[in-house]
TrEMBL record:
Span of the signal peptide: none
InterPro entries the record matches: PPIase_dom_sf, PPIase_FKBP_dom, PPIase_FKBP_N
Catalytic activity line of the entry: [protein]-peptidylproline (omega=180) = [protein]-peptidylproline (omega=0)
GO MF terms held by the record: peptidyl-prolyl cis-trans isomerase activity
Protein's name according to its UniProt entry: Peptidyl-prolyl cis-trans isomerase
Keywords annotated in UniProt: Isomerase, Membrane, Rotamase, Transmembrane, Transmembrane helix
Annotated Gene3D superfamilies: 3.10.50.40
Residue intervals of the PPIase FKBP-type domain: 84-166
Organism of derivation: Sphingomonas sanxanigenens DSM 19645 = NX02
Spans traversing the lipid bilayer: 20-38
Pfam families: FKBP_C (PF00254), FKBP_N (PF01346)
């Protein structure tokens, strides 16, 4: 008898196969439950660094050299804004637990005057695109929270729709010609935003 067949295979006793599959299913459920619990605990209790490290591994999330993380929810087309532009966006800002602290259906914001992570993200977004952003504290408000709704050293999560953008010089020309300061869909004068407006120094 060859070494391969030297040990006879034992048939599985009646009923054992069912028990085997029940055991496998139980292990899968337990493992899945532990993974869910681990993820929940991570979201609730992790430091910003731990959360950002975990989030970096999620599907579609891109991490830039600065530490900004983003996910493209809808691609746009064409050029992207620069520091010399004013953007018209719709956005919603929340904490990593989902607590919403601000939103605007249409707001004009100068790219260069945003907190670092938000400014960086805007310069990646062509017209018509929608991104989800995760800003670590160093790219957001850090220890200087602009509102009681936002604890110091918070990870900031934004959903941003890039509606339009134009250069500051172009907007000035429009104003001098009596055309107002609005861009397509901007609704006239810039909305100054709420408590979580992502401008630096707010």
């Amino acid at each position: 008898m060859s070494s391969v067949t030297a040990v006879p295979l034992r048939p599985i006793a009646k009923g054992s196969l069912t028990k085997l599959w029940v055991g496998v299913a139980a292990l899968v459920l337990v493992a899945g439950g532990l993974a869910y619990v681990g993820e929940y605990k991570l979201g609730a209790n992790a430091t910003p660094e731990q959360f950002m490290a975990w989030n970096a591994g999620q599907d579609g999330v891109v991490t830039t050299e600065s530490g900004l993380q983003y996910k493209i929810l809808k691609p746009g087309s064409g050029p992207t804004p620069t520091d010399e532009d004013v953007v018209t966006i719709a956005y919603k800002g929340s904490l990593r637990d989902g607590t919403e602290f601000d939103k605007a259906p249409s707001i004009q914001l100068p790219v260069a005057q945003m907190v670092p992570g938000f400014s960086e993200a805007l310069k990646l977004m062509p017209r018509g695109s929608k991104f989800q952003l995760w800003l670590p504290p160093k790219l957001g408000y850090g220890e200087q929270s602009p509102s009681p709704q936002i604890p110091p050293n918070s990870v900031l999560v934004f959903e941003v729709d890039m509606l339009q953008f134009a250069s500051i010089a172009e907007l000035r020309r429009q104003m001098m010609m009596g055309g107002g300061g609005g861009m397509g869909g901007a609704g006239g004068a810039p909305d100054m935003g709420g408590a979580g407006d992502p401008r630096a120094g707010q």
